[in-house]
UniProtKB/TrEMBL annotation:
Residues 29-58 are annotated as: Disordered. This is Fe/B12 periplasmic-binding domain-containing protein. InterPro entries: ABC_Transporter_SBP, ABC_transptr_periplasmic_BD. The keyword Cell membrane does not apply.
């Protein structure tokens, strides 16, 4: 690409091209959104500029900004307001999924720590993710979290529930003048719309509303694409895991309504979502799921080995999922990261199901 001869001629050619491109840009107006059809009529550039200015003006955060978020009270999630005098500068993301969502909004440089690295980082943001200090490969504790000197701790709600485990409670962090943002996707009765709520609110908190709105548009397009390829027949599934002692447990998924909401896009449903506690293989035989899923996470037992155990278990051969070998491996972060990667997970599952 870089030639050492006839530099003067090349510079002249480049200069000429710049003037030509500038002239074309002036006549064609400002760039259209990536999703806008190329067949639309080109509008006047002055009108476009005026519209863009209005959008920019409307998207600016005025501080102090108060948003309704969450804390726990007697074991239940309740509303708690968080007030920001300015955009946070030092953020600890308590899970990989929370950090990935920040990266998607253009906020990598605000993250001073991440933990719970249990899944694959998407290729398109892998280099950005490498810039973030890792506080712990697993779940991070309160002391290490505070040691990163954050002005905001954000992420999965379950890691804010206990004063002695996880990042500390919302109230204890707030008492130290550390703001908190619990992903609404990870609290009781969450739905897919809670993801859009989180993105919108993060856009306001960090004054990146334009980024947030654009990303929501992308995700909603993926949501529609998944709905369009949904199974015509309901597929009922059950989750399972390896206990590590030679036995296999059945995971009910109670409370994971965000995951259920996303799975329902392709008409696949958790049969056990209203069950309590860890369930037995006898229960699995009783409900007879059409499909079964197991999550893969860093440091965990190889799910393929666990699947081999199931397929070899004579007691379970009457189960449709086992009889028809409809057992699927899912990435832990995609589903239990409670972020935008839920779409990647459901898309991959739809591929596995040949939808």
């Amino acid at each position: 690409m870089f030639l050492s001869v006839k530099k003067g001629a090349i510079l002249c050619l480049i200069t000429a091209l710049i003037f030509v491109l500038a002239a074309c840009s002036s006549s064609n107006g400002s760039s259209k959104d990536a999703n806008t059809s190329s067949h639309e009529a080109v509008t006047d550039s002055a009108t476009n500029a005026s519209t863009d200015e209005k959008k920019t003006d409307a998207a600016q955060t005025t501080y102090p900004l108060s948003v309704s978020n969450y804390t726990t009270e007697n074991g239940a999630w309740v509303a708690k307001e968080q007030t920001f005098d300015k955009a946070p500068e030092r953020v600890v993301a308590n899970t990989q999924g929370a950090a990935e969502l920040m990266i998607r909004l253009g906020l990598t440089d605000k993250i001073v720590g991440v933990a719970a690295l249990f899944g694959n980082v998407p290729d398109d943001i892998a280099e950005e993710f490498k810039k973030i200090p890792v506080l712990a490969e697993g779940y991070v504790g309160k002391e290490v979290t505070i040691g990163a000197s954050p002005d905001l701790v954000m992420g999965r709600g379950g890691l804010f529930e206990d004063a002695d485990w996880g990042v500390g409670t919302v109230n204890s962090l707030n008492e130290m003048s550390i703001k908190t943002f619990v992903q609404s996707t990870s609290v009781t009765d969450a739905k897919l719309d809670n993801l859009y709520q989180d993105i919108t609110e993060l856009g306001k908190i960090f004054n990146v509303q334009a980024n947030a709105a654009a990303y929501i548009d992308q995700l909603k397009a993926r949501e529609k694409a998944l709905s369009d390829r949904a199974s015509t027949e309901t597929i009922n599934y059950a989750s399972f895991f390896d206990n590590g002692d030679g036995t296999i447990g059945v995971y009910n998924g109670t409370g994971d309504t965000f995951i259920e909401s996303a799975m329902s896009l392709i008409n696949i449903h958790n049969m056990l979502i209203n069950e309590e506690g860890t369930l037995s293989l006898e229960k699995l035989i009783e409900i007879n799921p059409d499909a079964m899923i197991i999550s893969k996470y860093a440091g965990g037992i190889d799910p393929e080995q666990t699947i081999e155990k199931l397929l070899a278990n004579k007691q379970l051969q009457s189960i449709n999922a086992i009889k028809n070998k409809k057992i699927y491996v899912i990435d832990f972060n995609n589903f239990w990261g409670y972020g935008d990667s839920i779409f990647t997970g459901v898309e991959a599952l739809a591929d596995d199901l040949n939808l």
